[in-house]
Amino acid sequence: MTDAPIYDLLLKNGHTIDPLNHIDGPMDVAIAGGRIAAVERDINPALAAQVVDVSGHYVTPGLIDIHVHVYHTREPEGLSVMADSHSFRSGVTTVVDTGTAGARHFLHFKRTVIDLARTRIFAFINIVDQGMIGDFEQDVRTMDPELAASVVLAYPEICVGIKTAHYWTRLPWDAEHPPWAAVDRAIAAGNLCQKPVMVDFWPRPPERSYEELILEKMRPGDIHTHVFAQQFPVLDEAGRPNRILFEARERGVIFDVGHGAGSFWFRNAVPAIQQGFYPDSISTDLHVRNVHGAVVDMLTTMSKILNMGMSLADVIQRSTLAPAREIGHPELGHLSVGAEADVAVLKLLTGEFGFIDCGRARMMGDRKLECAMTIRAGEIVYDPGGLSMPLWTEAPPEYWELRM
């Protein structure tokens, strides 16, 4: 009589990268009851009900994309994609919808999307009560700090902060549209709920400058997304990373990629990263207008940063542990024993690859990340190459039976 297996699933012979636990090398990962049960050098396969040989692959925490738009049930649909259709195929197990819903529609978003998705979904609540996208985003009367903060406080298990975006980018200032209205009210809401504010911003100096935003307006822990967008002075006149970026980081401001359809430009990102200014977190701003264009998915965005000179370990850290901390969920983004078993199994391809930015310019690279398997809460939810499956010629008896 043999003892029952103590692990449900064992990922064996992989190269594990877990930044929190300083792991970057050969390590097996065992899962039981939907949680990480062991991370050790050589775990006995006899202890597991299922063993998956992941030789030649990287095993990482499930990826966390903190800038997406997934409120696809709202009419009109606008920009949102279905989370489950895009997350797992890219190794992503957690996403954060950034302001697609405001206070007025959050409960509908929760009921029709968040509660039904297999992907873990958090939300930044838009300071605009109707969320995005429409002319209502320019109406300061829709920006109620107490209302936005009340939703965050009512649903702390889902809501991670406040979002502001798209406010008054080109028309003249007037009494109804002061320069800092959206940012100031978002930060007021953030103060009320004691959560970070994610800022999507268009500078219009001198009344509304980038320097004032990151050095005066934003608080420690607030997140500036779209950091490599065309409108920001990322580089100084000498082509070096602007000193104000480092000063803002010293203040505790967080810089997030937020690629998007118009907010990632090689002419800003490549020189900045190659000269030592790395983003704090990597995210896609995934939506229907970029999923088949400049962004594609999380791994494509990560591959771009990888080919700019950041190490694979640093790319993984900024796609797992760092974003988990930024949104106030330190229980995620790592493979500690006892943590929920969200895992990505990745392949690092080598060759000649082209990548594009939002200005329709191309960068060549020699490395590209590909997802081989995704595990969400201990369950294999993506395995297109059949790593976890037998060869058809060796399939068990039930494979050969007619199924009705």
UniProtKB/TrEMBL annotation:
The modification N6-carboxylysine is found at K163. SUPFAM superfamilies: Composite domain of metallo-dependent hydrolases, Metallo-dependent hydrolases. It comes from the Bacteria. Zn(2+) 1 binds at H67, H69, K163, D285. Pfam families: Amidohydro_1. One of its GO terms (molecular function) is deacetylase activity. Residues 268-381 form the Amidohydrolase-related domain. Zn(2+) 2 binds at K163, H226. Keywords: Hydrolase, Metal-binding, Zinc. This is Amidohydrolase/deacetylase family metallohydrolase.
